[in-house]
Amino acid sequence: MTQENIKLNKVNENKSVPSNAATEHEFMADVSTQNKLAKHAIQVHKFGGSSLATPQCIKRALEIIRENCQLNDIVVVSANGKTTDSLFAVYSLVEQAISAQLTQKSDELTQAIAELSQQQGQLITELLNTKNTKQLLQLLKKDIEQLTLWLAGDIVQYHNDILALGEVWSARLLSALLNEQVCPSNSIDARDFLVIDNEQSCVVDTATSAAQLRQRRQFGKLAVITGYISKDIRGNSCTLGRNGSDYSATIIASLVAAGNVTLWTDVDGIYSADPRVVPSARKLNRLPNGVAKELGRLGNPVLHAKTLLPLINPLSEHHTHLHVASSFDAQVSGTEIGKFGQIAKQELSVTYLNDLLLAQSVSFIGEAAVKAKAEFAPICMDDQKGFMVITQTQQKSLSQWLASHDVEISFKPVAIIATVGHRVAERGDIRARFKRSLKNAKPLNLVSSDNNHSVIAILPEPCSIELLNTVHHEITKDARNIGLVVAGMGNIGERFLELLPTQLNKVYALENLHLVGLLSSKKALINNDGIDVNQATSLFTQEAQSYDSEQLLSWLTHHPYDELIVVDITPSEDFSLLYEKIFALGIHVIGANKWAASSSTEHYNNLVNTADSNNSIWLGNTTVGAGLPINYAIDDLRQSGDNISELSGIFSGTLSWLFETYDGSSKFSELLLNALAQGITEPDPREDLSGRDVQRKLLILARKAGFELALDDIDCQNLVPEALQSLSTNDFLARANELDEYFANALSQANSKDACIRYVARFQHNNVSGVSAKVSLEVLPQSDAFANLTPCDNIFQISSHWYQDNPLIIRGPGAGRDVTAGGLHSDLVKVCQQLAHKQNQVKIKGIN
Is 10's pLDDT higher than 80? Predict the structure, then answer.
């Protein structure tokens, strides 16, 4: 398999939800394990304020750490809940008092400090045992005393030290809890190692910071590090901006060459628009680095603008993946950010920013614009028309900068709305669609970003919720990624794959379908970036690797697609036993496999209920009649209000051929061996002659018709004499002539009545006698609908309230690689058509 392929013998190490740490390197209590650093790529786990807001939230974070971390990993934390906001509020009260020239501390300030202390104290007392509680309460008391001293002094000097307290308290508490309940841990104040040039540019002194971090980390202990804060080259406390803990996490990841960073927050990923205001927003399962960076720059509510900067180093061979996941539902896969193939590059999203300024000046034209862009990094810029869009906070500094050049400037309030996607500015269809969706908004300009990952519309008015929803609908209405996994690489599976390229090109419903998995009974090829449909079989032969069911289910649990469809073309009962778990994941199944649909009543009903409750579609038209639309017909009659009273017919292509061909001119055993040689029968013809296959098919159709039936409720005539049933296949074939007398007599008796023999399935229901069902050899008049078929044909007869006197008949080839593969493609198109109208409800706890 290539590096882009997910190896099924190991959970993808780029994913943290859940990590392979939980299964391969669980935390152990023994000292030897605690002091032995796990040999794997370091992972960084960052917990946001909402993920640490309450005792319940913190307990969830502990479980996530227990399940996903190893001792040489790093945990980065924000302040608990709204602690930083409370510290800002306290600081503001002192500022107001100074402005009002008040000399005494106000009651409001005293109360605010007391509430802050009480909130932190409550977290400590509710979560820790008595010994550690006392220690942390004493440290908290000292910090509150220090805070009071700072507020009484030069508050500007201590501004960042005041704001840093929230992260210090959070790291200290979490580390103490880990020591008590999970593993050895130490808390680290990022100001003890993380050095930046200043708060404006936040350029990290990488060499110094990495060296000092190595000194602070303790062997055999999980490091818990404060986010948001750092120090400058003079040793002063600095912050990295609001929501800067995400940025801290990726900086630290770059310092230790981490393999993965997971941002645990209160949403389960990054969406195609702000899900708080766009109900139809869909989760973006995978995003290329450049696209995610552009989203953060243009106002995505989850991504900090600078978060990705430390992870994107074009000169480095090391690549760190970023994962956004929800601490409120840790088992749900979030959004992965990194280097991906074409499927991930098709993702589109819409974002917006209000309260911006359009600045116009001659200094923004031509070569002079280069200096302005380098100085202010505007939202967007046009160096031919001489304007740039900036934030309101940049107005003063921009005015001063231009004044020093003796150049005039004008400002105009504006907003922006942008379509973001990989090289989206180069996609004429998307750009045209974006422009059409904005016709009523009358944008001032349309500008492409320098990297072409966004097209930005500058609006004269703030972007409304209505406009955002309109644009999002137009841009993303066709943007879905449906993964296709084909299980079964035999004769029909190969034909299905041969037809797939043509189907993808000509059927609109399959526009967003991507082949991502191929399975045989022992080997698998899984590629999240897609498998070339034109080379599927050869790629499977070259690259497939061994797997087991547990590894397959692990990948299915974390697949990165909006929807996933499994096409089961196996004859395997073992594979059918995975259906329940597959349905529980919301994955759809198209099955030619009869085992699940003809399983015990309890198991079958459980499968149906599990699929329904998880919105999984289960189609199995090819389980009976190959490509004939018998399942569709029964579904349609039932959904239209009809009541089916009888189902009958010839359901076996093999038995159809045998009895249409058998006329007594040759012995039945000779005909059977001839059919075996032609591949018409199973390798062991007793599989056909036993009637079990027909029995299962009748059960499937009866259940489709709405009747609760078990296999044992259907009488089944086995055409193999009992003396031949337990023999080996070779022994049976050697004694096949023992079948001749029975069939010769049956045919002779039928001929005497100007009739024929056929193997028929019959299900009947009426209100008086109830249900009867059987499969058996019958003598039929030559005029019967079942008497004159093309050999191998199936025929199905349906009697119902609407079709009483003249039953509905469906007839045609009931076997064959082409018709069966075609039937599977018919089901595939139907599933994709249903999914095109499916709306997934966004469930969020809130966004910081």
Answer: no
